[in-house]
Amino acid sequence: MKVYDAHHIRNIALLGHSGSGKTTFAETMLFESGEISRRGSVEERSTVSDYHDIEHERGTSVFGSVLFAEWRDYKINIIDTPGYDDFIGEVASALRVVDTGIMLLNAQNGVEVGTEIIWQYTEKFHTPIMFVANKLDTEQSKFDKTVEQAKERFGREVTVVQYPLNEGHGFNSIIDVLKMTMYKFPPTGGKPEKLPIPDSEREKANKLHNDLIEAIAENDETLMNLYFEKGELNEDEMRKGLTNSMINRQIFPLFCASAKNNMGSGRIMGFIENVVPAPVEMPPEVAMSSAPIHCEENGAPCLFVFKSISEAHLGDMSFFRVYAGNIKPGMDLVNEQTGVAERIGQVFVVNGKKRADVTGIAAGDIGSTVKLKNTHVNNTLHEKGKDTSLPPIEFPAPKVRTAVVASKKGEEDKLGLALHHIHEEDPTIIVEHSPELKQILIHGQGEMHLAVAKRHLTQRFKVEVDFIEPRVPYRETIQKKVQGMYRHKKQSGGAGQFAEVHMQVEPWHEGMPDPVGLTIRGTETHDLPWGGKLVFVNCIVGGVIETRFLPAIMKGVMDKMQEGPLTGSPARDIRVSVFDGKMHAVDSNEAAFKTAGLMAFKDCFMQADPKLLEPVYNIEITVPDDFMGDVMSDLPSRRGMIMGMDADGHYQKIKAQMPLAELDKYSMALRAMTQGRASYTQEFAEYMPVAVNVQQKLIHDYALHHKADE
Ligand SMILES: Nc1nc2c(ncn2[C@@H]2O[C@H](COP(=O)(O)OP(=O)(O)O)[C@@H](O)[C@H]2O)c(=O)[nH]1
Ligand SMILES: [Mg+2]
């Protein structure tokens, strides 16, 4: 295969809600370009894009697949992304390296929640977008409604370039108002006949044609003047104007397709070739530590790794986009982040599991290589002596969590290594070794995401694991002011131990007045590693306890706060004022005061109306109108508190608070309740008291365990 220059490269990502037809559409692009001679289907598990076992099992894309089609003199790199919210990380990494997104809309359903979520990412990356209304062959296809919704959601920049003549079962004709032609497809799809627009459609087509011209001219003064002079723009002028408007996200052209019947992709590829911006037409890549990088084949070599995956027989494959230079086998580069020198081995272009060696991948192009020493997603490789660092992909924060244990004893290390590997391949899987909960937690984007991780663990890494309920990071605090004392006294043989501490223990809150009736000699405020504060006040008068023992007393208090008196959960937001005590010239030492401090604190704490707190999250649920009632009425059973709601197009946004313990199961429940059409975001809000019965049960459990320990 030849090395393509940046004028003859197009980088696109197929985007859209799950089931909109991305993988099927990719297949038609490969077929139309002659890359494959037979079109596979998702149902037969035979597409080029969904080639992993897990995708066959689930009948849907799980990974972003890197594909390409050689189309006329062009190489179109295609990243087919999964539509499920669970795999949004794949969308983020695709958008980081492509120049244009093709957003598929399922014309049966219009704009779906997945489309909206992905849209927000395209806004962040400022990605030029074209829309494709797909599934126009289905009985429930509603093109006009789909366009209307798209305009409502994404703005009047959504501009119709094509509309279907006869959507529904017999769909075979598309009117193109850029070319002012009708395409009529044979029943097997493929190459359409080009026909004049029928008289009955003339008026509508002309109007849309003029709308399109006006939209283009609006963004370009020269074109606007031309349009005024001539009353028309020719195809070339429109093309140029369109490219610029796409780059600036001033126009989102909308096309038609039936991916299943292979209708529409040829023309769309023509548009990709002619109008969709080439890498050289995009703004230069902004580097973090150096000047912007221009897409030049003779520039200093520089690439960005956006994906890595471990493939059977090949090892770790790294996918990269070249930003400058021409990456060739044998080339020596430096990894900016890990500092290692990497020699590039074979360089490939890939179509799903099919790979071909190439002699080089030039600026603007996407390729892959294997067996790099220490290179991961988000790393920049560049020529020695440079310090270029390209901006990393910002992955979304996790939404669900589970605890994981190795089923077989002795496989803990193996599990740890496997998890490390999984995180490297998929940075949206976050692994947390929690000393507080004494569990290993896996955080991900959704249940399906976690299920995929589990499958990797068992099938690829051969570690049998169980997912168990994650513990909740409870906190303890108190609700009233108490004074108490403790005398620690031990006489065994020679030197004894003696310390007596009197303290006042009370709930702390920001801005509270100083303790009343005590003489304050000093105040220390400690931010606790587990959140909240300990305020420690020295109110000792007359030197009844020497100042040098105060740190020991505080250490005792801190130790007990770390493992709270009630259930062993960390305690927070407490003020301790030590105001009296006794010491002994010989028997008093730091250890004795530490014990006395700890015990005095524990006693006071237990009398101060102790309370168990649990983490509560703010959630915002986006749900289509039809499911609003179901979602609302389900919330109370999950201890969800509704805080408000807002209409947003044909969606409702529900704001609520939900305890973490319930949130752990919410993603799956919401999906089941709404056929996957709702989604939510979450953010830690605050610690709130748990229900009395829950508190009693947890105290009881802790007491039992604690007895067993002692
Ligand atoms: N009738 C019809 N079905 C389609 C069309 N495109 C895709 N499908 C079907 O819709 C389902 C989902 O398609 P897929 O390509 O996996 O969607 P993706 O999740 O966006 O990748 C599959 O059963 C496809 O066969 C289309 O244009 N018309
Ligand atoms: Mg797919």
3D architecture notes:
The chain has 5 domains: 6-281, P-loop containing nucleotide triphosphate hydrolases (Rossmann fold); 302-382, Elongation Factor Tu (Ef-tu), domain 3; 400-471, Alpha-Beta Plaits (2-Layer Sandwich), CATH 3.30.70; 476-609, Ribosomal Protein S5, domain 2; 613-693, Alpha-Beta Plaits, CATH 3.30.70.240. The strands form 7 sheets. The chain has an 8-stranded antiparallel sheet with strand order 16-15-21-12-13-20-17-18. A hairpin with a 5-residue loop joins strand 15 (332-335) and strand 16. With 710 residues, the protein is an alpha+beta fold. The N and C termini lie far apart (72 Å). The chain has 17 helices and 35 strands.
Helix and strand layout, with pairings?
Blueprint: E1 9-15, H1 22-32, H2 53-58, E2 65-71, E3 74-80, H3 88-97, E4 100-106, H4 113-125, E5 129-134, H5 143-154, E6 158-160, E7 162-164, E8 173-176, E9 181-184, E10 193-195, H6 199-218, H7 221-230, H8 235-247, E11 252-256, H9 265-274, E12 302-311, E13 315-324, E14 326-327, E15 332-335, E16 341-343, E17 347-351, E18 354-357, E19 361-362, E20 366-370, E21 380-382, E22 400-406, H10 412-425, E23 430-434, E24 439-444, H11 447-460, E25 465-468, E26 475-477, E27 482-490, E28 497-507, E29 522-527, E30 533-538, H12 550-562, E31 574-582, H13 590-607, E32 611-624, H14 628-634, E33 641-648, E34 651-659, H15 660-663, H16 666-674, E35 679-689, H17 692-709
Parallel strand pairs: 1-3, 1-4, 4-5, 5-11, 6-11, 30-31
Antiparallel strand pairs: 2-3, 7-8, 8-9, 9-10, 12-13, 12-21, 13-20, 14-19, 15-16, 15-21, 17-18, 17-20, 22-24, 22-25, 23-24, 26-32, 27-28, 28-31, 29-30, 32-34, 32-35, 33-34
Helix pairs in contact: 3-4, 6-7, 12-13
The structure holds guanosine-5'-diphosphate and magnesium ion (MG).
